[in-house]
Amino acid sequence: MYAIIKSGGQQFRVASGEMIEVGKLDAKTGDEITFDQVLLIGGDEPRLAPDDLSGASVRAKVLGHGRGKKTIGLKYKPKKFYRRRVGNRAHLTRVQIMDINVP
Q1: Can you give the pTM of this predicted structure?
Q2: Strand, helix or coil at 47?
Q3: For residue 21, what are the contacts with CB-CB under 8 A and spacing of at least 6?
Q4: Which DSSP symbol is given to 99?
Q5: In 1-103, where do the E strands start and end?
Q6: Diameter of the chain measured on Cα atoms
Q7: How far from chain centre, in Å, is Cα 78?
Q8: CA distance 8 to 33
Q9: Per-residue pLDDT tens for 47-76?
Q10: Pairwise CA distance, residues 85 & 72, whole Å
């Protein structure tokens, strides 16, 4: 069984036992958190209707915090010698999915 959850404006496909990196969450290492925004529960019998998903949640454990890979942004205007290079590293939280609760 798998679920699609929403966290920090992004959607993630998760299953029990998986580790994922989401945007930084306000939780300490070792805390258990619950994702209440479940968009779909898949498996033998997929559930997509809002009535089927009311009360559904995904329980996870926080493994740690860190920063992601650097992404580079470039700006360039031809013939004007304007060049700008900026970098960004996102703050991330690594979580392990414990279980998917189906109502």
Answers
A1: 0.83
A2: strand
A3: 66, 68, 92, 93, 94, 95
A4: E
A5: 2-7, 10-15, 19-23, 32-35, 38-42, 57-67, 71-77, 82-88, 91-101
A6: 62
A7: 38
A8: 14
A9: 888 888 899 999 999 999 999 999 999 999
A10: 7
